[in-house]
Amino acid sequence: MTPELFRGLADVDLAGLGIPSEEEYVAAYCECTGRSRSADWEFYMVYSLFRLAAIMQGIAKRAIDGTAASREAVELGRLARPVGEQAWALARALGA
Hints:
Mean pLDDT: 92
Number of helices: 6
Number of strands: 0
Radius of gyration: 16 Å
Helix content: 55-70%
Structural class: mainly alpha
Number of domains: 2
Strand content: under 5%
Shape: globular
């Protein structure tokens, strides 16, 4: 996900910022927990994006109802569709 869409790190110089790549991070996690990388890793990535889109949709509804707790609720609500579309694009790409 790009930073412009929602706090993402896509297209960011991770190494320049001292942030491990996804592969490095997952490898370190697996080493620390004694687990191996899940064969379903990509599924979990898609699921997480859809979950985030659903949360954003709930925030949008609360903004409409006037019960949102955040001043950023309207903007977060607007991101629900693009995040859902990104999740769908990733799901389709993995299914190919």
